[in-house]
């Protein structure tokens, strides 16, 4: 078909014809008493307010989903409609609405906008029911609601229209035909609705069909009719609309125009009245045409005529909205006319003259802007958001009007309805001023709990072209910068979320002890306000560089001090948990009182990851904060050579970048060390620090005792040779790092004296720990021997595993050539602060278990910084009561590893191995003997591979070979072949993942600790700046009614009070109530303990080699297999992590991964089943090929001649160990001991379709003890019954009897009554150790009270029997010959020769 242009027609209709039409529709004037609003939300409330002002009763309708909606509560009366219907459908039920109106004696219905507001059938239904419809007549609505009819009316009225179809179309072919005739672009519009639904612009003819289908579907869904209207699309138009009011007497007035050009996907975003920068001539013509069209159709009540205005001033009619518009508010603001009241009065029959609304009396005053604040996320394509509004604070003040319904704290934003939350209207003398007021108001809004479009609206309002009023409908599309948002910090609400989480679920940072932080406020010594800190050594470094700095140190009189309180001291005493909050408070005092300090050690080492992992604060921010507060004292950090501040080998460019960023953020001195004194690793760190412009302090890690001339390892020459290499590598300062505190005073004199003699120009710096209590004496000897700098901690943070006392060293050197120049009085004030502050960290206090120093450090050599962490780790692994044993085993583990230097990370390796040995009852000898069968901690395997470097005296053999089991070895610097890291690509990836710009420092944190940083970033985004909270509040939260002031930035302080915690609701949440800055706020927190489902994790079956469990409590850090994977023996299955200890668990067998029971990140208890392998041993394959009847039981016996027993023992043990069938009983004598010294013997009695039970015994050759306990089960008729040993204690060396307990397993699942008595025989005879006579009542058997004799033998007793070596675990109990044949086939296919069958029934043998 072809579309013909309709020429513009003159208005030829006679005026008397129109008057006749109007006069026929005139209703008699009446006063409404009750008016219903057939709508919801803010427009319903807007109408209610007008009704209240007119002294009329307001009536609401609401859906089931809206029962808590504000519009229901604002009305005088409210009635449910649409029960059982979907949310939108409820407001479209014309019959129910009319029925409700009739029942409640409603005089008139206001439709609002949307829903039924443009449905002529609704207006007609009202009219038929004798209810006034507040709006145009049904006929006018039908004509104006039909875009084609409205277009035809405009043509008839002589109003220019855009070329388009003469009527609605329903097929894509018609749309394609129109596009071919008029060209593209075209626009598709819903014929029977608006609001942007069913509207599509099509730029290419080939896209018409698809766009038509989508628009048709959308219109069908929204309006019940998918018919579309097609128009030629006007390029770059402004969208101008005219507000009209008409009475029932033929009077029509306009209330000027609005500019609605700021649109997104044809949805209006910002509306302005009057239209700025619209030429007056164009305005007058548009207003005149709008009136002409309204008069032509006999329009009554409120309506809007919409036009498109192109760049040349040409304008085209597009449609009429026969209802009140969302943006009517701006017209009200500039004209002073209440449009809703006018609608109601006109509907009552009043004339415009009666309302004093003559055209000549309507004027504009100033300018108004409306912004629709919606619950949409502009950063995600305006994705609607729903949920509970946690916080709502609006913008108010002069020139601001708010129309809303759901905008209040606690409101639930429903996903079922439009996302409009509040309309904000700003009015002022002109457009720029109105925009300024709007910006101010939107900035005042605080909405938390749901996303809003406020950031987008602010960008629109600040756009210069918007302020210049030169916008068209392309405005949003052509300004992508409108979608660049500065994310809201939302700090207050996030902090409340954190405090609520702590209140409901307990500390977010795990507390190591039951002690709680004290209610103390540490006393901060005062400094004179406005005074600047004195000059310090840092000024020398900044001005003259590292070399001049080193010379200045060497020339300085006396002995200088490095204060370790800010790092190593609290690492050693308080598990590295001291927060920046407390460090910053005392920092100004340090800056003013101790400018003589050589340095302040405050960064690096374990503090880096712990700050993110447990304190939830950024280590880089800590460094910058302290640098700002202490500008005059050099900062010192700990750099682990090629490991930087991590525990892995990083690419060299990462180490370089780390040092560069460290200097940039305020670091000065890098104490570079390697845990094995491995020079290639040391050199990497030294070069990186030097290139970054830092002071290089190369540190030699100390162990052994140079004063003991009998020791051949780590003697004086060893240290002198190392020092020479470091000096050649151009270190600025030479350091001795005595991590364990084993440097004795005499050894210090020898070592430091020798170094000073050999290197007279190099500054020497000494670090030690005071674990043995000799630290002060050692430091004094160092000073006398020529050390330039010694490390110390302030008195209240010194001693034990920390550094020696600063006050003691200062006092002892006072008045000597080595005087430090520090004031004891100032040290006393400094100490008082930390003495009080330390009480805040009581949950991490090492003094809980360690009351004093201990000289046994000279034996176990545990580093001071590791001691408390190792202790807490032991407690977390259930080894707390055995910590003395762990310390002793630490020495054994160290010797097993070849007596290595013990500094992070090598100290961690020794600690992991020590706890592993204690957990598994291993000695150094048994560790080496059994190494091939043990799953070692990952750190041990890495060390043996050479992944942290080469130990000075080589790797221990044969332990290394046994541990590695063929794994590759590294014989070069571990990081040497690691490819460089693309930091830019990493940054882009992280920014995409976390949705915010990241600093280079953030990327570096991720490079060092990927998982830790990601967890920290997620925590920070969820809970905000928790580092601003006082320490006690951070750790354990607020007490009820307690108040706290939180300074989130300079000049911004939050006043927070905890009011109450609510009861558990049906969703497992508790509502926590706060007072924030004088306003009540509440948040819902999931109660994890009360709401969690009780999950019982399956346990690994003892002795089942395919049932692989967690050997210790911890987290599944990594899964290395997936279900269905084929695995080989000793193939890694998963990595378990507890605290910082990692263990790789290998598969003990070849098979297939049947099931993974614990996902990555799962917290496991010891023994929890993690991976289940299907074991395909020869025995199992045979059983599977020859299944038994369900009721069968079988008996198995092995025989060997006594002289051949020693030779056959290994094969016998291996054969038994491969019997993987459901009934399993393992005896691992001596190798798995209980606390009382008895062996752990485990049993299980699951049913199977093949067998009920079978016994399995594993032997370990233990000199002087029984290697194997064997149970032989006979009844008085020599018929075997199903009895297994469940638990036993060991034979003591004194020869006392073996105590055995019995467990009876029956064929069915009924319980058996068991009573037993025992008679002892003398050990050493050929008789059993014990004879048990048990009376067993089998409920499933006709035979009752059968007496069973249980003989428990030691290996030696069995060997005296000569004719039997083996087990009889269960007896075959079936008369089926097939079952017997199956059994024989299974045994033969398994390659087992059976020399004797025990009779099980008289008929079968």
UniProtKB/TrEMBL annotation:
<dbReference type="GO" id="GO:0005524">
    <property type="term" value="F:ATP binding"/>
</dbReference>
<dbReference type="InterPro" id="IPR000008">
    <property type="entry name" value="C2_dom"/>
</dbReference>
<keyword id="KW-0547">Nucleotide-binding</keyword>
<feature type="domain" description="C2">
    <location>
        <begin position="1264"/>
        <end position="1398"/>
    </location>
</feature>
<dbReference type="InterPro" id="IPR003379">
    <property type="entry name" value="Carboxylase_cons_dom"/>
</dbReference>
<dbReference type="Pfam" id="PF00364">
    <property type="entry name" value="Biotin_lipoyl"/>
</dbReference>
<dbReference type="InterPro" id="IPR005479">
    <property type="entry name" value="CPAse_ATP-bd"/>
</dbReference>
<keyword id="KW-0479">Metal-binding</keyword>
<feature type="domain" description="Biotin carboxylation">
    <location>
        <begin position="31"/>
        <end position="481"/>
    </location>
</feature>
<feature type="domain" description="ATP-grasp">
    <location>
        <begin position="151"/>
        <end position="348"/>
    </location>
</feature>
<dbReference type="InterPro" id="IPR035892">
    <property type="entry name" value="C2_domain_sf"/>
</dbReference>
<dbReference type="Pfam" id="PF02436">
    <property type="entry name" value="PYC_OADA"/>
</dbReference>
<dbReference type="InterPro" id="IPR011053">
    <property type="entry name" value="Single_hybrid_motif"/>
</dbReference>
<dbReference type="Pfam" id="PF02786">
    <property type="entry name" value="CPSase_L_D2"/>
</dbReference>
<dbReference type="GO" id="GO:0046872">
    <property type="term" value="F:metal ion binding"/>
</dbReference>
<dbReference type="InterPro" id="IPR000089">
    <property type="entry name" value="Biotin_lipoyl"/>
</dbReference>
<protein>
    <recommendedName>
        <fullName>pyruvate carboxylase</fullName>
        <ecNumber>6.4.1.1</ecNumber>
    </recommendedName>
</protein>
<dbReference type="InterPro" id="IPR005482">
    <property type="entry name" value="Biotin_COase_C"/>
</dbReference>
<dbReference type="GO" id="GO:0004736">
    <property type="term" value="F:pyruvate carboxylase activity"/>
</dbReference>
<dbReference type="InterPro" id="IPR011761">
    <property type="entry name" value="ATP-grasp"/>
</dbReference>
<dbReference type="InterPro" id="IPR000891">
    <property type="entry name" value="PYR_CT"/>
</dbReference>
<dbReference type="InterPro" id="IPR013785">
    <property type="entry name" value="Aldolase_TIM"/>
</dbReference>
<keyword id="KW-0067">ATP-binding</keyword>
<dbReference type="Pfam" id="PF02785">
    <property type="entry name" value="Biotin_carb_C"/>
</dbReference>
<dbReference type="InterPro" id="IPR055268">
    <property type="entry name" value="PCB-like"/>
</dbReference>
<dbReference type="GO" id="GO:0006094">
    <property type="term" value="P:gluconeogenesis"/>
</dbReference>
<dbReference type="Pfam" id="PF00289">
    <property type="entry name" value="Biotin_carb_N"/>
</dbReference>
<dbReference type="InterPro" id="IPR011054">
    <property type="entry name" value="Rudment_hybrid_motif"/>
</dbReference>
<keyword id="KW-0092">Biotin</keyword>
<feature type="domain" description="Lipoyl-binding">
    <location>
        <begin position="1099"/>
        <end position="1174"/>
    </location>
</feature>
<dbReference type="GO" id="GO:0005737">
    <property type="term" value="C:cytoplasm"/>
</dbReference>
<feature type="compositionally biased region" description="Basic and acidic residues">
    <location>
        <begin position="968"/>
        <end position="987"/>
    </location>
</feature>
<feature type="region of interest" description="Disordered">
    <location>
        <begin position="965"/>
        <end position="987"/>
    </location>
</feature>
<dbReference type="Pfam" id="PF00168">
    <property type="entry name" value="C2"/>
</dbReference>
<dbReference type="InterPro" id="IPR005481">
    <property type="entry name" value="BC-like_N"/>
</dbReference>
<dbReference type="InterPro" id="IPR016185">
    <property type="entry name" value="PreATP-grasp_dom_sf"/>
</dbReference>
<dbReference type="InterPro" id="IPR005930">
    <property type="entry name" value="Pyruv_COase"/>
</dbReference>
<feature type="domain" description="Pyruvate carboxyltransferase">
    <location>
        <begin position="559"/>
        <end position="828"/>
    </location>
</feature>
<keyword id="KW-0436">Ligase</keyword>
<dbReference type="InterPro" id="IPR011764">
    <property type="entry name" value="Biotin_carboxylation_dom"/>
</dbReference>
<dbReference type="Pfam" id="PF00682">
    <property type="entry name" value="HMGL-like"/>
</dbReference>
